[in-house]
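Hi L.,

As promised, AraC family transcriptional regulator:
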Amino acid sequence: MSTYQVNSIPLKDVIISLAKSFGVKYQNRCGEYFLSIPKHIGEGQIRGINFENGLGLIIYKAIFKEDTRLEFTLDEIHPVKFVYTLHGSISHEFANENIKHSIEEFRCAIVASERNNGHIIEFKKNILHEVVSVEIDRKTFGVKENCELAGWNSELKNVITDVEGVSQFYHVDSCGIYYKNILQNIDDYKELLIAHQLNLQAMTLEMFVQQVVQFDDDRLTAEERSILRIQELKRVEEAGNHIKENINGDLSVKNISRITGLNPNKLQTGFKYLYSTTLNEYVTNSRLEQAKILLQNKEYNVNAVVAAVGLESSSYFSKIFKKKYGITPKQYKNVEF
């Protein structure tokens, strides 16, 4: 286990401190600080930036050759951290405890240490880690966003406004689908620094907002939750396959919800995310695609096709078929293939 001390809190100083520990130079591009991990330690990059509203962003994209432990132990009140593990898992522990919390891939954690106790993060060796942490300086954020905080009614408000670090807080749950590709646009406008900086700030604000909303959703029962989680996308894919394989079955939202164990809100969100359509539109399109194939078969007349794809009304079938393909089923049936 390789251990590195980080005796800093502003993210620019975190990067500078890590660069010194790694024995490498750091780069500064208008307040965004970078370091490249040296080959004897691993490969990849760590980057960080602070914004005037008290939010900050640090991104780890790295493979370490040895199990690696980063100890953030400066004797001051530490920021609240919104930690997202997008690839690989990490462990977190509070510096005043000897309890490790595993933050698995595609999990979102909120951690706030007590008083001046810091945080310890461990990375397993030979694994690609993509970890994002939104850092909230409680005091600065409280001053800058005082008006907005006044009307906020959530347990999370107590954590973020705990400027003296009176209480320790730890919460983890599955990440919503928003987080699946959050690093995709991280380098947009790289050549236009003002746009790049504003893009980073906008992304950080959006991550903050998404976590605030998701935290309240986490507190709900499974049936009440509306945010689709990344791990649940597999069940949406399975729903899509089920529809294709059971085209003449009961493909109502209610039945698909029962089969997948996802409530209707999550199902609709998932179909919009994966297929850019609603569940009912996906069912209709799947039935029409199958109908088009069957109409090419001389053994099927139009009425037989209607039954085969799970519809009851021939007139309705003709209407939606013509709308999609610009030709009626009977006309399509007479086309030579």
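Residues 7 and 13 are 8 Å apart (CA to CA).

Thanks again for sending the construct details.

K.
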